[in-house]
Amino acid sequence: MAKSLQYRCSECGASAPKWVGRCAQCGAWGSVSEAAPVAAKAAVPLTSALPITQVDARKAAGQPTGLAEFDRVLGQGLTPGGVVLLAGEPGVGKSTLLLQVAGAWASRGLTALYVTAEESAAQVRLRAERIGALSENLYLASENDLDVVLGHVEQLSPKLLILDSVQTVSVPGSDGVPGGVTQVKEVAAALGRVARARSIPVLLVGHVTKDGAVAGPRTLEHLVDVVLSFEGDQHLDLRIVRASKNRFGPADEIGCFQMSENGVEEVPDPTGLFVSESDTAAPGSCLAVSLEGRRPLLTEFQALVVASANPAPRRVVQGFDFNRVLMLLAVLARRARLRLGNREVYVSTVGGARTSDPASDLAVCLAIASATADLPFPGRVVALGEVGLSGEVRRVRGAQRRVSEAMRLGVSLVLVPKGSNVKARGVKVIEVATVTEALAVVGLNTPTRRSTQDDEHARPELSVVAG
């Protein structure tokens, strides 16, 4: 009897009964190819299955890395037998961060093996000396052959394994080139087996594409237990470690670091990095408190609105979702009667902060309105709330934590959605139901409605509410 053919996607591993040009699971084009069917056969297990009540949960207890911000993202430190993938752009500091983790690990008397497939051992040694990560318990190996790497693990029996990077290691006898779909899958799968068999944590460095996604097959993210992204602008010192997948802790937590000559330094209170240092109130500036995991972060949004002679004025956004800003502009135009059809709009966060929290909607709206009127707010204003298409301000989660963070930094006014019922001392908290109500509270009001023809030729200004 002829065996039926199977087709499998090289990006996500999804199977299909027949060949298709585009994978129905991940949407990748040209990734489906024929795969030989593998006949499954029973094997004698090495260990017997145990009742779940007899499984020792202490074996999965995390061990601290020595960097509290890194442990915060991981949830409970490095879990024995877990595989962590840290991806980031070239030059952002991935190798430096993990070398510091290895140095802190070795300083506690635990053996750490750092395998570099991109640099020589001497180069890594110079970096370790600069950041203070030298230790007799930290071993370096410059190898790009997987069999040799596994040989080092067998010889040293380390308590921590770091591989830099997973896309540059080759598997002898396997098809493809280093960094290809087959090779990357084989490397990740082999190191995962080693991690579970020896009960040691494994840290992998990964490259990213120009779109910011992890390079290689999507199955790489499924093979590991934790996926972290190391973000930051090379022209700024701020670095953020963000979790997108975590089997051992929260998958939306972030850790903040700052690059210096001595390596990567922790920033336990990063709020001041995302707020301008000027004490003078400027038009087009409004504060928001976003929740990144369980951490409230004060973020400043700045807007600039200028006249434009182009039939399609530019909209430029940095640090926030571009399409969401376009939606907020439509809401301001329709519900708050703010005329921006012949003006360019620029929206940006301070300090390179990036947030996708919908609770920042109201702050973005107020910043744009303030920039349009070219009038600052009376004091530092924090605005919290998700804005709907009808102009209503919706409640957000963690309102009390957000307001408490604003209180700690000494703002003068906090706008929250109606029904939030937050408690605050020393800060004026006002509940608003709509965007127009919020504009009136901060001293801005929209012009009275005229005819459609008048609106098209009217100057895009706001009038100030008396008092």
Largest sheet: 9 strands, mixed
Specify the CATH class of the largest domain: Alpha Beta
**CATH architecture field of the largest domain:** 3-Layer(aba) Sandwich
The rough form would be described as globular
CATH-level-4 superfamily name of the largest domain: P-loop containing nucleotide triphosphate hydrolases
Helical content stands at 10-25%
Q: Quick one: how many beta strands?
A: 23
Could you tell me the CATH topology label of the largest domain.
Rossmann fold
**What is the count of distinct domains?**
3
Alpha carbon gap, first and last residue: 88 Å
Structural class: alpha/beta
Tally of contiguous helical segments? 11
Uncertain segments of ≥5 residues (pLDDT<50)? 448-467
| Beta-strand percentage range | 15-25%
Describe the structure.
With 467 residues, the chain is an alpha/beta fold. It is 24% helix and 25% strand. It contains eleven helices and 23 strands. The chain has helices spanning 68-74, 94-106, 121-131, 146-156, 181-198, 219-223, 322-334, 361-373, 399-408, 435-441, 452-457; strands at 6-9, 15-16, 32-35, 83-88, 112-116, 138-142, 160-164, 202-206, 226-231, 238-246, 254-260, 263-266, 285-292, 295-307, 315-318, 343-349, 381-383, 386-387, 393-394, 413-417, 428-432, 444-445, 463-464. β13 (285-292) and β14 (295-307) form a beta hairpin. α2 packs across α3 and α7 (322-334) packs across α8 (361-373). The protein is globular. It starts with 5 loop residues before the first strand and ends with a strand.
